[in-house]
Design a protein that fits this description.
The chain is α/β, with parallel strands linked by helices and 385 residues long. It has 16 helices and seven strands. The protein has helices spanning 24-36, 47-53, 73-82, 100-108, 121-152, 161-176, 188-197, 210-213, 221-244, 250-260, 281-296, 307-316, 324-332, 334-343, 355-362, 370-379, and strands at residues 16-20, 40-44, 61-65, 90-95, 113-116, 304-305, 366-367. The strands form two sheets. A five-stranded parallel beta sheet has the order 2-1-3-4-5, sandwiched between helices. The protein has a two-stranded parallel ribbon with strand order 6-7. Helix 4 links the parallel strand 4 (90-95) and strand 5 (113-116). The longest helix is centred in the middle third of the chain and has 32 residues, at 121-152. It is elongated and about 75 Å long.
Length: 385
């Protein structure tokens, strides 16, 4: 089933705002303006009443006057900031006092913004929109990693796989950011987005049956066809999310990665057989990161291979499996990749010592037969999907 954006009045999905003011006329006028703008509102006459309302109404934003009886806006801010909450509450204070001391007092109490009376309603609306953007970023980061962890939870062998993937992807993207070929594509925002969205690369595995996903051995041709569907399942999932939340532009990169990180530079990958730069850059980056991590960590169907063996496979796959530029980038940051591997490994030491030394310390059996591993990788016998 494909989800579609809600075509109904924006009020149904509007930001929830608690308005607090002891002036009933001013409160009613502000409430009318915000409801017309599509926000969902609840009203309170002072800080004490606002806290009572918050027992039954969870606002994402509180807009409060400062000077009120029983509990003023400063004390309301302090109380809200002391409460435990699963999500951040954005606080805007309204006051007739514009002295620097008054502003500092409000900010010190935990307010995010301060607006002096009298103010234009349009100015307040813009301040609210600025707050909404901050709240959206918080929700975005939480949603991305929660979804990714949901997929990872199916496979107990993956451990800190998601943390490593995002670090590997960020490292590769940061390296090519200064390359002339990529300077119009890769900037600091691209690096941030790939760090945030790369953990969603395998979200589609939630739709793969355990008998295939957790099979301790080589997949049969029929089972491999089932496994390959995780890219399409992930793509459909994120496409539905993007349609339901068109304002969430980061989902475009997440969709590209989930759907196309198993495409190969030479066109022999899946699900579409894309070739070269037909494959989105974000997916090409995650392809290198994902294979390196899959090879260097123990899985239910394979031992952990040494860094040297994994690097050798990546170098020999330059221009076939992987974008030649990204293999060159991998070579430049190889020691950083090795360090990330050890710092975020579930079992091995946090010191980037050689694999032989690590084997002696931990008892982990690393495979070092580079020629055999290369042959099996090209045959597809070594699963990295």
């Amino acid at each position: 089933m494909t989800l579609k954006p809600n075509p109904l009045n924006r009020e149904a999905d509007g930001l929830k705002i608690l308005l607090v003011d002891d002036d009933p006329i001013g409160l009613a006028m502000l409430d009318h303006f915000l409801q017309k703008s599509g926000f969902r509102t609840e009203l309170a006459a002072n800080g004490k009443e606002a806290l009572e309302k918050m027992r039954f109404f969870t606002p994402r934003m509180v807009i409060s006057d400062v000077d009120m009886p029983e509990m003023n806006g400063i004390d309301l801010c302090k109380t809200i900031r002391c409460r435990q909450s699963i999500q951040y509450t954005y606080l805007i204070l309204l006051t007739a006092h514009s002295e620097p001391e008054s502003v500092l007092q409000g900010l010190d109490a935990g307010a995010d913004d301060y607006l002096s009376k009298p103010f234009r309603h349009e100015e307040l609306r813009l301040r609210i929109e600025a707050g909404r953007r901050i709240l959206t970023l918080e929700g975005r980061d939480m949603m991305i990693f929660s979804l990714a962890k949901l997929a990872e939870s199916r496979d107990q062998d993956t451990g800190t796989h998601l943390e490593r993937i995002r670090e590997y992807s960020k490292t590769l993207a940061t390296e090519i950011m200064a390359w002339p070929k990529f300077e119009q594509i890769v900037d600091s925002q691209f690096v941030e987005l790939i760090y945030l969205t790369s953990p969603l690369h395998d979200i589609g595995k939630v739709g793969i049956p355990d008998r295939v996903l957790l099979k301790p051995g080589k997949l049969s041709p029929e089972e491999f066809e089932i496994m390959k569907k995780h890219t399409l399942i992930g793509g459909e999932t994120l496409k539905a999310s993007a349609q339901a939340h068109p304002e969430a532009s980061f989902l475009k990169m997440a969709l590209d990665i989930a759907l196309k990180h198993h495409e190969r530079w030479d066109g022999t990958g899946y699900p579409f057989g894309l070739q070269g730069e037909e494959i989105p850059l974000s997916a090409r980056i995650v392809a290198v990161a994902d294979v390196y991590d899959a090879l260097t960590t123990k899985r239910v169907y394979k031992p952990a291979f040494t860094h040297e063996v994994a690097a050798d496979i990546i170098y020999k796959s330059r221009g076939t499996h992987f974008d030649p530029d990204l293999v060159d980038a991998f070579e430049k940051v190889e020691e950083k990749m090795r360090r990330i591997r050890y710092e975020l490994d579930d079992v091995v030491s946090s010191s980037p010592a050689g694999d032989e030394e690590q084997e002696n310390r931990t008892g982990i059996q690393f495979s070092t037969d580079s020629e055999w591993v290369n042959v099996e990788f090209e045959k597809g016998s070594l699963r990295h999907c």
